[in-house]
Amino acid sequence: MKGLLVGYFVVLGVAWVAAAPRAQPAAAAQPAKKTARPVPFAPGETLTYDVSWSSYVTAGSATLSVIEKKPSYGSEAYYIAAEGRPTPLLSKLYDLYYKVDTLLDVSTLLPQRASTYSREGRRQRMKVTMFDQAAKKAHYEVQAGTVVQKDLAIPANTQDALSSIYVLRASALKQGNTFVMPVSDSGETYTVQMEVGAVEPVSTGIGQIRAWKITPVLPSADAGGARRLTLWVSDDPRRLPVRLQAQLAVGSFDLTLRAATR
Known about the structure:
Low-confidence stretches: 1-31, 221-226
Number of domains: 1
Largest sheet: 15 strands, mixed
Shape: globular
Strand content: over 45%
CATH architecture: Clam
Radius of gyration: 18 Å
Number of strands: 15
Strand order of the largest sheet: 8-7-6-5-4-3-2-1-15-14-13-12-11-10-9
């Protein structure tokens, strides 16, 4: 049941991101001013999802929140967090909590730092990735009783699992498009191919929403053993991730948007 809630949701949201616009030359002795990229989300947005697993109608809940926009590493960044936990009934059988967060640069839409905290029973683990996008490097560290560190070479425009969902929301979608995106997760970097399908109606807790059907194609080893993944993103100005389906060796997972506040 590892990854019952947020784990499988955040690991597959990936998207193509265009090259960041160059800052305009500034006056002498003045730092270049960075311009925020237009995005369909803003601080204060919280998306809440019901999570079903196999025979359980509702196995848990997950939230995605744009908490704030703040100064970060010489720029500005959106601080975005995802949390997930099982229902009270399931938590008695299996205590599980996930929190994933990212600092997403407002001008490049590239992550500066990403972390994942997980608690499964008595086991706790913290994973942190620091990105140096200009140098195409990243530093990964995992704390689970002991500390393990790893330096990574990353391709240009590498996302983390959570930031890629928000970059997807800011991307232009068109039926038939296929694109690829490098994603760094748990100390490994892999390339995910995205196939954009047709717009179709999706039933959610806030009504029926027309949404793009997007199919990520990635090696099973990188998808937690996923056999098939499908993501739906609303065809409206907010570009909400409204539903996720994942067929896994341990069962079928379905995350459906229950509420959206802003």
